[in-house]
# Entry
Amino acid sequence: MPGEPTASQQTWQRRPSPVAPTGGWGSPLDEAAAVDSASNIGTGTMHLKDRTFKVGTWNTRGKIMAKPGLPPVNKVTAAEDIMSVEGIDLLILTETHTNKAHPVVTSRRHTVLAQTGISTASAGVAILAPNDGSWSCLQAMTIVPGHAILAQLNHRRSMETFWLLAVYANVSDGHASLLTFYTELQNFLADLVYSLEHSASWTGCLATGDWNAVEHPDDRTPHKRPLATYHTIPHTLTHIKSLCHLQDAAGPHTCPQGHTFSGTGLAPWTSRLDRIYYPLDSWWANKPTVIPMLWSDHKLVWAKCGITAPQVQIAKAAPRLPNTNELAKCKDFWGPVLEKYANLANSAVTLEAWTAFKKDVLTLGLEARRTQRRNRSAEWRAALQGDAIPLEDLPAALDAARRYVPEQPPNPRSCRWRSTVGGDPSDAQPWA
# Structure
């Protein structure tokens, strides 16, 4: 139309990187962003992808679980399956019960970036990542053997490099060993931060694991009055958080609905021992997701952590209608689409009406696909917890799930390059 700018004259506006609101909890974008962006088609606005990583932790209570009449279950394999289902990028396993002679060994799907252990009966920490060539460990420092490791990680695809502190607090001798552990951790980090701050290379670190201590008394149910020797531990933990610029992903207040450990005995209790921290100044995080696990009294906890100022920013592709094969059996999609089409056909088809119809169909398609994936993830999460299928049938079912590939129609016009580079990953397991 006269007076309107042509396609070559339109100005593309670059949206700034998302920054967490004051307090730092919650991403400004969520999974519904694709639906929101559907309404912006043709507006000239460029949306940028968040640079996020899913970081999780799980206290496995050893590598193997044996039940009478059933074959032993490898908990590391179960952790890998959870990583695949939930899309976790970094998973810290604690209490792995490993040493140099018997390390944590993964399948070809994942790799161990760093680990430390002292005994096959206690302690042990390992950092797992997908074995897709993206992750590498530049250096790893053992702070407390078997209990704490600080690793500098690099993600090749995003060109991001950051520090990760993996912790399993030592409670082998009660509060005395716990206080000794936190004191050693505090002294190590104080010396490290002093040396790195002079080179301007320290901006904090991610920190996660089993801390074996709560920050708030209400994080334990029922409430228990701590011993006099315990009061020093929260102060030490607060100092550690200040050294690493840490903020709890669950927020600054108590989180009774997020208990991650269930103790048994004469007086059962629950507490939030497994926590994820992020550096407040340069990262943001969503509230953690807590998943009950069949093979441990600790729950698996993961949170989506994002970088406020990523090294490389990637534009979001324009939303596209999912493949019709995915939507063929989705009644929630076709019913509303046919209804909207009938309304469109009953009146004069204008450009505005046709554009609105296309946007509505796109929104319905994206929501239908998201619902399908959410349901599939929920089903396999239940299966991994042993709620949906018998434990003895779980390995075969998971193997079938890993081999499942959605049917795609052939595209004879496609000429995209496909990687033919093969090779087995290295079997070497890094130790700090």
Q: What stands out?
A: Residues 1-39, 404-430 have pLDDT under 50 and may be disordered. DSSP finds eight helices and 20 strands in the chain. The longest helix spans residues 351-384.
